[in-house]
Each structure stands twice: as structure tokens, then as C-alpha cells.
Amino acid sequence: MTSKHLFFKAMKEDMRHKLWMAALSVLGNFLVLTVGWMIWRSNALRNWGGVQGLMQSGDARIIESFQEEAAGIFGAYLMIAGGIIAILTAIMTGLFSFRYLFHRNMVDTCHSLPVKRDTLYGIKYVNGILIWLVPFLVSLVLTFFMCCGLLRQVGGEARIPQIASDALCGIFILTVIYLLVYHVGLAAVMISGNVLNTLVSMMILGFGVMTSYGLIIGFFNVYMGTYFMPPVDLDTVVYGSPLISAPFFLFRWVDEADFWEIGRGLLLSAGMMAVLGAGAWLLYRNRASEAAEQGIWNKTTAFILRTVVGVAAGMCGWGFFMILVSDSRALGWGLFGSVLAGVCTFGVMDIIFQMDFKAFFSHKVQMAGTVAASLLICFTFYWDWFGYDTRLPEPEEIAEIAVFDENLTNHYLFRMPVDARLENMHYQDSDTIYAFLERMVGHEREEGFWGETDRIGVKVTLNDALPILNSGRSYYRNYWMRKEDKEVAWPILTSEEYLKNAYLIDDATLEGDSECRLIMGGEERYVGRILPQIRSAAEAYNREVLEAPDKALLRDGKLVAEVIFGGYYETADGGFRRREVIMEVYDYMVNTVAALQAAGFELPDAGELGIESFVLALECEEDATPEERIALAREQYGVSGPKEQAAPDSAQTAFGDVAVWNSHQVSIAEREEVEELFGLLSFEYAYYSHSVFGDDYVDVISFMKDGSIREWCLPKGALPEKYILRFGK
């Protein structure tokens, strides 16, 4: 049994051979942490003439801001700069702490010492940690005391507990990060017999899970027409690839993620660290001395690594050649690319793992199986063999549905994923749901271009096979919805459940730090805080939307005003995102209009806005006849007319290569006609809220008294006949 004295003596002797690693660690930690913070301090105080100049400025706000910046920089800089050094040092120590395993004579010498193999592993393992931990702690303590001294000089003693807490958190988190990356290096060393194989193994262990995940998601995006969201969240999968998760976790910490996300990240990182550490130790115990100077000595490990890399290469080859060739031959080229990439990669991996150029075809059966597996995956996505796009549960399986169409809403939550907007809707008429899903799935079974469509996000919640669980299995899809789908979609979209989720103004919108802006006649007014009268208008708006949901969704009538409630909402990660709810007021909403007028917001007429004239434009051939111009105007403005006025076939064709086109204009300046046309127009914001079910708009220009030009929206089919006929003059 090795005594403690001999253990520490062996540690000292081992450290003597690793002084170059220790020196690099000391230099890196000192320069990046201590010297780096001193440089920041010098630059921050330069403009004030040092601490004395800052204190003599006498501005309490500036001094307090400097204190906050100094304390914040310590915490953020510690995690970023210290984290970079920790990761780099972990890679170095992981790769070279057991470098004697790559040389047969050194392995024989070390294993002949009167020290148990587990003890020898412990000696080198602990030294690999101390090489980073001691220089890091020394540099951190120096930096901490310098930061405390600066805060005392500028009267910021109250912030010292904050930076002490940041220092303790930094020690704990960076230790986990260091051990995670350190164990990746150790695991790669233990399965390899030389540096080349170690580097290859480390890349596979460090990036393999995220690479495979990215390929799968890429295939979903390319081949699944209804793909909505990853089946497994990126923030979870990333922790399967330590060389990605380490910097990712540091970024989330600095970005001030919430407590639960940080805790989950730490647990996943610690779990991966434990698995890799245990694996490295077990591999070391079972490693034979003859493994030195070989490739991958463990056949099972070599098979797994070859297979994973070979399948991934086959998928990449398929995708690469499918992108290069976009015609009917793409499938054949994809097949060729997958086989070529799979065979070449598998063979090269065998050469590396066996350190023998003759080993390219040494595992023909395994190579064929790997190529077959990659082709199976590619064909499965290409022909959707697992029925992703065509999944249609039975009516009795469906519990509820939630839908969200970004063109059928007045709630705009910037940078918020659509799936988060599907969590508050619970529509439960199973017959209606089944008819809707059946139509949507039917579109996916068709081929060809459908014309104009809306993209609608859907969440389907199913009944549990075991009701006692009562958890509700769900799946998400993005379907393409056409105009003719109104009959099956409309009962869901006009339901109170959907309106509450996508249209109604809730109490949360009217409270908190929301601000309010009003747009009437294309002119914007800042209201500021939400007045009681505005709240009354919102209540009237909600009632009128519920009473006439068809009109609200189709945006029927003239848009006379928009009340924009803006603010910020807190996300799951503790951040804040911009949120806007736009209350679109149309002329048929008499109670809402009356409430706005009672609040002092009168709807202006054309004269009050300063409109002098309108211009209706028509793109037509320069030599078009009056009949052709009238026919084109009917088509452009959506106004039907007598068949005898239809244009010849030549006027209905697309823009010719030779014909000269120009704009034929009709000016409307008579005051009565200006007022008449103004009664039909919505201001230009109506363009931004259009769904496949709504009417199209035509652009109309007005000339103002001040010489400016303003754009308006005219619904197709609303222009009176007399204006259409003027295009023939």
C-alpha cells in the first residue's frame, strides 16, 4: 500500500515533469485575469485623471455609475477571460497529463514502479487539476483585492459583497467547466495509442452530439414541409458536446440567464463530466501496455466512432450533391454522394485507428452496414417514411388544439418563438379539429405549387393511452393554409379561444410599463401612459371583436385608427423582449370609435388632414387602347364589369420583352370625390396585416397641401365604376 508520504512525493516528482504546463497556466491566468483587469482600470480612469480626478468631479451619478461598472466588469470579466483560460488549460492538461501512455518504454517503466495503477492514475489526475486551479485562485485573489481597493477608493465598499459572491460563483462554475473539458481529453487519451488518434477521438467526443443533431435538424428543415420545432431543445442537446457546452454555458451565465436554466446547465455539465471521468478511469484500468503507439486499442470503441462518423459523412455527402443538382437527377446524385462520402470516411477512419494504409477495407461488412444506415436515414427523410408530414391522429385520440397565424393577429411579440404563443389556447371540439387536420395533412400529400398560402403554427394535444398519467402528449406542426381552407379553419380561428390568444386586449397589456401611441389618418400621436378612456375603448373593442369575429379576422371595412400598446415582457431566460399589441379600429366598430372620441380623439376627414387630391395609377403598355386600359384597370383594382369591355388576349398577357410600359394616371381633385374616395381608404399600415383570407389592397397616392405625398390602401373591388372608366379617356 502506498503511504501518503510516497503519494505526495510521487506527485512532486510528476509535477517536475509538467513544469512547462504549470508555467503556461501561471502566465495565462496572471496576464488575462490580473494584468487584464489592471489594463481596464487604467483605461477607465484615464479620462478622469485617476481616482482623485474622478472623486473631485463631484457628480454622484458618475461616481455611482463607475462603481457599478467596476463591480460588473469583475464578475463578467472573471467568467469570460477566466473561462477561456480554463478551457484552454483543460485541453492542454487533458491531452498531455498521461502522455507516457503513447510510448511503450515509458509505459513499461511507469507500470513497473511499486505503485498501484489506480494510485498512479490519481497522482497524475490530481496534478492535472492543480496545474490550473492553483494559478487561477492566486490570480483571482490578487484581482479581487485590487478591485476591492478600487471600490474603497471611490466609495463603493457596499459593492464588495457582490464581487465576493461573483468570485465564489466563478470558482465553482469554472471548476465544473474545467473538469468537463479535462475529462474529454482524458477519455480521448485512454482510448488512443498516439497523439493523432487522441486528437481525432477528442473532436468526436467534444463535437459529435451537436454535429449529429445539426444534421438531423437540417434534414428536417429540408425535407419536412410541416417542420415546426426540434423534438429536443438545443439548450439541452448542447450539453452532450462538452467542447461546445463549456463556452455556451459561460455565455448563458454572462447573459444573465435565470436561476433554473443555470442550475439545469450545471447539472447537465456535472453529469457529463462524471460520465466522461468514470469512462476515462475504467478505460485506463483495462488498458494494456501494448496499446501504446497503436491507434484505437478498444475494438468496440473504434466500431462506435467509425460508425457515427461514417453515417454523418454519408448524410453530408447526400446533402452536398442534392444541393449541387436540383433537377430530376438529384436523387441519383444524392445516392452517389452518400455512398462515396460514407465509404471514404469509414476507410480513412480505419486507416487512422489502425495506423496502417492497408486497413481501408479491413472491415468491409461494417463499412457496408454504415453506408446502408446512412442511406436508410436519407431515404427515410426524403420519402417521409416515418409519416412526419402526414401524421393524422384518430378523432378519439385528440384532446385539444392550439393554432397561431402571424397574419391573423394583432399581438406582435418580437423574437418570441411561435410555440410559446400556442401554450394559452385550448380548443377542444374534436370533430372540428379532425376536419381541419385532415385538410392540412391532405395538402402535404399533394404535389405542386398551391398559390397564395398562410403559414399556421399548430399544437395538437393527444389523450394519454393511460389516463392516469394525465400529462397530455403533444406535437407541433407548421401547415400551409389556402384560401379554400376557410370552411374548416374558420370555426377554430373565430372561436373565443383563438380570439383571446391573438386579438383581444388583455389586462396585462393595459397595465405595467406599457406605453400607448395612436395613429389616425396616417398621423401618429404619442399618448404615453394608458388613460382610463383608452381602457374603455379597449373594452369596447374586445366586445365588438367577440360579436363580429369574421369582420375582425378579415379586417373588413375602413381602418380608421390604430392604438398601439407597447412594452416589454420577461422571457423564460430572465431577459426582456419588445411586445406590441395593435388595436385596429375599423369604421364598423361604432362603440370603439365613440370611446376614442369621448377620450378626445376625433377622426379627421380629408380636409382636416390636408389632402388636395388622389392619384390612381395603372401600369399598361404605352400604346394600349382605351378598352385595354379599362380591362387592365378592372383587373388591377378588382372591379368586375360587363364582358363586352374585356380586353383582347394580348392585354391579358404578362409583361412583354419588347413592349414599352408606363404609368397611366387618373387624378381625383374634386372635393366631393376626394371625400368619397377617402371614405374607402385605409392608411398604409393596413398593408402589414393581411392574411390569405382577407382582401388584397391597391396602393393609392395622395398629394397634401404642404407638398408632401402620402400612401393609402384601397381594398380591391371597392373602387366605384366611374373611376375605372376614366382610365379609358
Structural class per helix/strand content? alpha+beta
Sheet with most strands: 5 strands, antiparallel
Oligomer: single chain
> Count of helical segments?
26
* Global outline: globular
Task: Please provide a written account of the structure.
The protein has 729 residues and is of the alpha+beta class. Helices cover 55% and strands 14% of the residues. It is built from 26 helices and 13 strands. It has helices at residues 4-16, 19-46, 50-56, 60-96, 104-111, 117-153, 160-190, 195-223, 234-237, 242-254, 259-285, 299-324, 330-354, 364-382, 430-444, 486-493, 496-502, 507-510, 532-547, 549-554, 590-598, 606-609, 626-637, 649-652, 671-678, 721-725, and strands spanning 398-405, 411-413, 454-462, 473-481, 515-520, 523-528, 559-570, 576-586, 611-621, 661-668, 682-683, 697-704, 709-715. The longest helix is centred in the first third of the chain and has 37 residues, at 60-96. Residues 466-470 and 643-661 have low confidence and may be disordered.
